[in-house]
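Quick one, probably user error.
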């Protein structure tokens, strides 16, 4: 039996799932779907920063445009060390398309002007 907290909405239902992925404790079907996905193929949207040149800040906040497999998060964080953006940057700018062949793009999450 595995215990999970649903993160789909702020209610945060405490759920239990057995080995056959029968889920209990969820107040709606979205919780069961989340639990099954989390136990079979966990994914995460990754947020971080990359180096920025010529801007009013030294680093640029970024995120993946879609969830990526949880077991690729460490590889992604290592890859970000080699990414550098140049100001100005705008929310939604794609810095790396299909990063690490995950199907997700690396996108900017903050407006930063030139220094
Ligand atoms: S199971 Fe439904 S109600 Fe409960 S936290 Fe998840 S999404 Fe919200």
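Nope, works fine. Designed sequence:
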């Amino acid at each position: 039996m595995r215990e999970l907290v649903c993160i789909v909405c702020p209610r945060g239902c405490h759920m239990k799932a057995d080995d056959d992925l029968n889920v209990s404790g969820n107040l709606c079907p979205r919780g069961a779907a989340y639990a099954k996905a989390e136990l079979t193929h966990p994914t995460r949207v990754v947020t971080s920063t990359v180096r920025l040149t010529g801007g009013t800040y030294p680093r640029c906040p970024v995120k993946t445009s879609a969830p990526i497999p949880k077991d690729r998060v460490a590889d992604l964080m290592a890859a970000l060390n080699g990414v550098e953006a140049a100001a100005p940057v705008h929310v939604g700018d794609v810095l790396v398309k299909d990063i690490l062949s995950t199907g997700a793009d690396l996108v900017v999450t903050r407006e930063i002007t030139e220094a």
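The first strand starts at residue 2 and ends at 5.
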